Amino acid sequence: MAAWVSLLVAGVLEVVWAYFMKQSQGFTRLWPSVITLSTMIASFALLSLAMKTLPLGTAYTVWTGIGAIGAFLVGILVLGETVSPMRITAAVLIVAGLVLMKLSS
């Protein structure tokens, strides 16, 4: 269970660093760049802990899936990115894949 919690937090931190990387404007703004790098390190460290017990394919897929869906939602809700039926369908398919991955391990 601890591995899954670590993986979940690592995935959320991936969303945080992706958002702040966008805000850093190509690492030209100090604080968004600092937040990006520190949350990247924390995210990778937690992913590494989760991989001690979870299979590589499961851990990495779930981590990137959380990041992808989280970034998708932040893009829409915070950054005002467009929503289209195809983007929603893609997000639903990613979530379905994550659920299947969890169920298979």
Task: Provide an overview of this structure.
Belongs to the drug/metabolite transporter (DMT) superfamily. Small multidrug resistance (SMR) (TC 2.A.7.1) family. Gdx/SugE subfamily. The protein has 105 residues and is mainly alpha-helical. It has one domain (2-104). The chain contains four helices and no strands. Helix 1 (2-23) crosses helix 3.
In brief, what are we looking at here?
It holds the Pfam family Multi_Drug_Res. The protein is mainly alpha-helical and 105 residues long.
Helix- and strand-based class?
mainly alpha
- For the record, the count of structural domains works out to 1
Number of strands: 0
Unreliable spans: none
Report the β-strand fraction as a percent range. under 5%
Report the C-alpha radius of gyration, rounded: 14 Å
Number of helices: 4
* Mean residue pLDDT: 95
H-E order? HHHH
Describe the main β-sheet briefly. none
Report the span from N to C terminus: 12 Å
Query: Helical percent range?
Result: over 70%
Overall geometry comes to flat
